[in-house]
Structure formats: C-alpha cells, structure tokens
Design goal:
Elements (H helix, E strand, L loop, with lengths): L1 E4 L5 E4 L5 H8 L1 H6 L2 E4 L2 E3 L9 E6 L4 H22 L4 E2 L4 E2 L2 E7 L10 H12 L6 E4 L2 H10 L3 H8 L7 E5 L2 E4 L13 E11 L8 E10 L2 H16 L2 H7 L3 E2 L10 E2 L1 H20 L3 E2 L5 E3 H7 L1 H5 L7 E2 L6 E4 L4 H9 L10 E10 L15 E11 L4 H18 L5 E7 L12 H17 L5 E4 L8 E7 L5 E10 L1 H5 L4 E2 L5 E2 L2 E6 L4 H12 L12 E5 L5 H13 L4 E3 L6 H10 L4 E5 L1 H6 L1 E6 L3 E7 H16 L2
Parallel strand pairs: 1-5, 16-20, 22-23, 29-30, 29-31
Antiparallel strand pairs: 1-2, 3-4, 3-5, 6-8, 7-8, 8-13, 9-10, 10-11, 12-13, 14-15, 17-19, 18-19, 20-21, 21-28, 22-24, 24-25, 25-28, 26-27, 31-32, 32-33
Helix pairs in contact: 3-4, 5-6, 8-16, 13-14
C-alpha cells in the first residue's frame, strides 16, 4: 500500500497505481465530479495518472487557478484538434493556458482564417467535446518524437523536441490529434460545455521578429454556458472601462509614433494625477522612515553584469549604449536595485544604521516585443515606486509588517477592498535551486508567515514559487468586474547583497551580510494608473481626480463670476476649472460628466448675487445651493475623510 497525505496532514492508504480521480471518488462522489487537476509532491499531475509511491496530494476544482489551468490547457488542445479538421495542413506552434482562457499559435500553411470563421471553429470544438474523447498521456523517446512530428511536417514541434532531454518527453492524444506536451490535462473532453473564440493576432515564432509570423487564436471555455454568458457580459463592461479609452477622454496620457512605441507621454492632467500619487506615497514613506534617493537613468554595463540583470534582460532589452571611449558601454536602467546597492556601499555601515530604507520613484526601461505592448499596462519605459530595505536577518519580520501596513493603507484609500495574497516559499525538496543558507531561509520564510498571521491575512502558501534569491509575498487585487491584477509585492533577497559584497559591522564587531527587501506597493505608476482607471471606470477618488469640480456659467454674462468662483476654490485647495464655452448648460453638464469630473457647479444670476454655487454631484444629481466657502469646506472635508482613515 502507498500512503497519501492530504493538505490538512491527514493520511489514507491506497493500492499503488491509484489515480487522483480514484482518490477523490473514495472521499465523495461530488468531489470526483468536481476535480479537474492535482499536484503530487508539488508536481502538476493529471487526475487520471497513476501514483506509484507515497505522496502528498492536492486536488483542484474549477474555482482553483490550477483547475482552470488544466481545463483551459485541454481546451487549447481541443482548439488545435478542431483546426486540424477544418484546415488540413495547418502546422502548430505552442498552445498554453493563460490567465483567462488559452491560445494556440498556428502556421496556416496556405489556409486563411478570419473572424468570420469563429462560429465554425466553435461548433467543431463543441462537436468534438461532446464525443467525450479520452485525453491520453504517453511517454515517448526523443527519436520517436522527432520521427512522429517530422513525418507530419511539424517543423515547429521538431525544433522544440530537439531542445528537450531524452527520457522526459510526453505526448497527449485525443481523437486524431496528438500534441507534444507536459500536461496536465483533463481525463476527457467531456467537461468542456461552452466555447468562445475571442480574437486573432499575429505572433512571431518564439517571440523572434526574424522568425515566421504565426496566427495566434485566442479562446475561452467553461463547464457551463451560464459562466460563458457572464464572462461575455464582463468583457463588454471591460471595453467600456478600457483605460486607453478613458485616458483619452480624461486627457491623461498619449502615445506618439515619433517618440516611440510603448513610451507614454503624460499630459498635464495625467502628470498632476501621477504627482498626487507620488506625494501620497512620499508622505506615508516619510512616516515610516524611508530616505528618498535619485539615481541615473543609465548605468555602466558592468553594474548590471554584477547584479545579474544583464544576463536576465540583456538579450531582450535595449542594447548597450556605446560612448566615444573605446570599449565603454552603458545600459538603460532595467531595475533600480543595483543603483541602491551602490548607495548602500557608498559608506561603511553598522548594525546601528539598520534597517536602512531607500526609496525612489525610478524610471526603468525594458524592450517589450511590439505585439505585447498594451496601453499603460505593458510599456517600454515605466516608473516604479521602488524601495529597498537593507536589514539584519532578525529584522525581516518587523520590516515586513511595516510594508504590509503601507500596502493595506493604500488599498483602503483607493478602495481596493477585494484582494488575495500569496506567500511564495522555496521547494524544500530542491534546495539547490536557491541561494542563501538554510538558517536565513528559515528566518525569512517564518518572518513572512508570522507577519501574515499577525495581520490576520489569509494568505495562500505555495511551495516552490519563491524566487531563487528569497521568499516573497504578492498581492493580487480583484477589480470592480472581477479581474485579478498583481499590484503590491514584497520580496526578500539574499542574492544582491552577496553579489555586491554588502556588509555591516555587527554588535560583535564582526562583518555580516545584510538582507535586502524589495518593495513596490504600486508596482509601476503606469500600470497602477491603468488598473485604477479600469477599476473605477475613470471615476477616481475625489482626492486624486485631476479636476474636482467644473464651474458652469449658464450664459456668457456669468463667465466673470464663474472665473472668480474657480479662483476662490483653487485658493482653498480645491481643483476647479471653468467651462465657459458658448454651449447650452445641458451639453456642458454631459461633456464634463464624460470627463468624469465629480462636481458640477452651475452659476447664474441668483448665485452671482449671493456668492453661491448650485451643486450637482455626478451620479447623485442636485445637492442644493451653497456658499462658495461652504462648498470648499464640504469638499475638503470629504477628501480628508478619504485619506486620513
């Protein structure tokens, strides 16, 4: 018998060769109906694949990310099977599951596929799914794999196989379709009940602009049609909330081909919005003892060779800048961390200096492929709200708690009420993948776990998900329409202090290595603004919105009074603009509501005589008439209640 250990540490005995699906059946029929995927000793596992030795097991349903991944991975194969039937001779690249659905990169090989073909592809996928085809895993030798896919003219698959290690190659077959794949997959296509092909895009093979351009077919599937219907409604809502559309309407940012793809231009209102976010965080950081620093936008190539960033980003990033000096090379800064390490090294440090908290709104540059650029969420130049805390190992927990306080404060002020956290730890069975001593890893991991417990944060723990340089805590925010975005992150790093030979003198008068904590609550200002615009549909919090109120004179006769109102409000720290266009008041109200301005102040003869404004709040309608000074206090009190919670 083999012993199976469950997440709650309970155990059961089973015959060798028992599958996760059979284990689920032994617990309850309902569980067996619901599970889609499993992990066995931390490795992804088909629920129909036998287990032959003692193991720790986790079972995953649709609501788990792992369950959706297996469902959508199998759906990618179903898409490929349908395309193979509909378009004979089509060749296949890769077809992974993604955060929402899946895609498959294909070489049409003379076939033409357009959006008009989507209904036929969907119908074929449903037809194949209804056959309840078994999805069968098989081990295959490298030679046999090369022959199998070579005989079919699948040069893309053969290229992938040529790079794999013999003895670790598997295929999955359903019906007449066989694919090179690691898995995991569903046991059959039966659970796939609803299908939608979403879009087509161009994608260079392996992301290389010098290679063939393939067609990327995006799709999504669900176990119930109702789920698909709800998802399509959400997609329509997402279109309305697209930050690129809202940013244009609110006059926040623009892009210019003359400047370059992926390099946003912040317009005056957008720059003011960014500045308020920066000032908001600067104020919090000052309270927590951060020291603001500024570093250059470029650095000597050797700096990034030392840090390891050149090995990681060099090939796919902006290429070195050559100076008139022979052999001298600089790089556009891909990360702020190496610069901060050099600031730490700029003078001797004692244990009395720690923790040292260095913060910077530092702009960094990475060359993203043109096909992957997307508004502000994927750009080539972006500003991180970066901070690096240099501390002794026994200070990690306290620093973690303080960073968590900052992140919670920001989420509350911006009404990101729905979020999840994940603690990423190292794989205890594969320690050679990581750097740092067991003692330091134990300290760091326990510090994160204890910090989360103290804050009452129900964080999910994942073994093997730590970075090679240390454990981390990531925050995933759900926006108003249920999409997940990773925003805050806190990472423990033993790597850079080692690479840069950072030291401090301890109380024992000996040299010690500090630990480095990376921290970015916003992540990047560009991406954060995009998420915020889509979360709020552009109706930003009153303290943050570029224009808090628009003064609307009902005719030209009251333009001068409107300007005086705006001047008095701006003097009282209320951001007010005047719309003195020669338009009817109804159009002015509609136009300014489109710009997401929270308050409209309508002024005419009565208001001018009494130093008053007629107040209209977006989404709530008329709020009555107020003195100018009364409205200014009303608005500033509302702002104060938001950011001083």
């Amino acid at each position: 018998m083999i012993t199976i250990t469950f997440p709650d540490k309970s155990t059961r005995q089973y015959e060798p060769g028992t599958t996760p699906l059979q284990i689920a059946e032994s617990i309850s029929t309902r569980l067996a109906q619901d599970i889609l995927a499993a992990t066995v000793n931390g490795a992804e596992w088909d629920i129909s694949r036998p287990i032959t030795e003692d193991a720790e097991i986790k079972l995953f349903k649709w609501d788990d990310a792992e369950g959706k991944h297996a469902f959508w991975h199998s759906s990618a194969h179903l898409l490929a099977e349908a395309l193979q039937e509909l378009y004979p001779g089509v060749k296949f690249g890769i077809g992974p599951a993604i955060e929402n659905g899946f895609y498959y990169d294909i070489d049409p090989n003379g076939n033409t596929i357009t959006s008009a073909d989507f209904p036929a592809i969907e119908a074929k996928m449903i037809e194949l799914a209804q056959k309840k085809e078994s999805i069968v895993r098989a081990d295959i030798s490298k030679d046999d794999a090369l022959k199998m896919f070579g005989d079919r003219g699948e040069e893309y698959k053969c290229e992938l196989i040529s790079e794999l290690e013999d003895g670790h190659i598997t295929t999955y077959t359903q019906g007449a379709f066989t694919d090179l794949c690691r898995g995991p997959h569903l046991p059959t296509t039966a659970p796939i009940k609803a299908v939608k092909i979403l879009s087509l895009a161009g994608a260079y093979w392996r992301g290389d602009e010098k290679r063939n351009q393939l067609v990327r077919v995006y799709g999504i599937t669900f176990p119930k049609k109702k789920m698909l219907d709800e998802y399509l409604v959400m997609l329509e809502e997402a279109k309305k909330r697209d930050h690129r559309k809202i940013g244009k309407e609110m006059e926040l940012f623009a892009f210019s081909p003359n400047v370059g793809a992926g390099l946003p231009l912040w317009l005056p209102k957008g720059a003011a919005l960014r500045d308020r976010l920066e000032q908001f965080l600067r104020k919090i950081q000052k309270r927590y003892g951060y020291l603001q620093v500024i570093t250059p936008h470029i650095g000597n190539k050797n700096l990034y060779v030392t840090s390891g960033h050149y090995a990681k980003y060099g090939k796919d990033s902006f290429q070195p800048i050559h100076t008139p000096e022979e052999g001298e090379e600089y790089l556009l800064k891909p990360m702020n961390c190496p610069h901060h390490c050099e600031i730490y090294r700029s003078s001797p440090r004692s244990y009395r200096d720690l923790p040292l908290r260095l913060a910077e709104f530092g702009t960094v540059y990475r060359y993203e492929q043109s096909g992957e650029l997307h508004g502000l969420t994927r750009v080539r130049g972006f500003t991180q709200d970066d901070a690096h805390i240099f501390c002794a190992p026994d200070q990690i927990k306290d620093e973690f708690l303080k960073v968590m306080d900052i992140i919670f404060y920001i989420f509350k002020a911006l009404k990101f009420d729905n979020f999840e956290a994940q603690i990423s730890l190292r794989d205890p069975n594969n320690k050679e993948k990581y750097i740092g001593s067991d003692e330091n890893w134990h300290l760091a991991e326990n510090a994160i776990i204890e910090a989360c417990a103290e804050k009452g944060l129900n964080a999910r723990t994942e073994l093997g998900e730590a970075a090679f340089y240390g454990p981390k805590l990531d925050f995933m925010v759900k926006d108003a329409i249920g999409r997940r975005w990773q925003l805050g992150t806190i990472q423990v790093d033993y790597n850079l202090p080692e690479r840069f030979q950072l030291e401090f003198t301890g109380a024992d008068n000996q040299k010690h290595r500090p630990v480095m904590i990376h921290r970015a609550p916003f992540g990047s200002l560009e991406r954060f603004v995009a998420v915020l615009l889509e979360h709020t549909a552009g109706k930003l919090p009153l303290w943050l919105v570029p224009d808090q109120c628009a003064v609307l004179p009902i005719s030209e006769k009251f333009n001068d009074y409107a300007r005086r109102v705006a001047a008095e409000l701006n003097e009282a720290d209320v951001r007010a603009i005047v719309d003195d266009r020669n338009e009817k008041i109804g159009k002015k109200i509609r136009d300014n509501e489109l710009k997401r301005i929270p308050y409209m102040l309508i002024v005419g003869e009565k208001e001018a005589q009494n130093d008053e404004v007629s107040v209209r709040k977006q989404g709530e309608g008329d709020k009555g008439t107020m003195k100018i000074t009364t409205f200014a206090k009303y608005l500033t009190d509302e702002v104060s209640s938001m950011i001083n919670q």
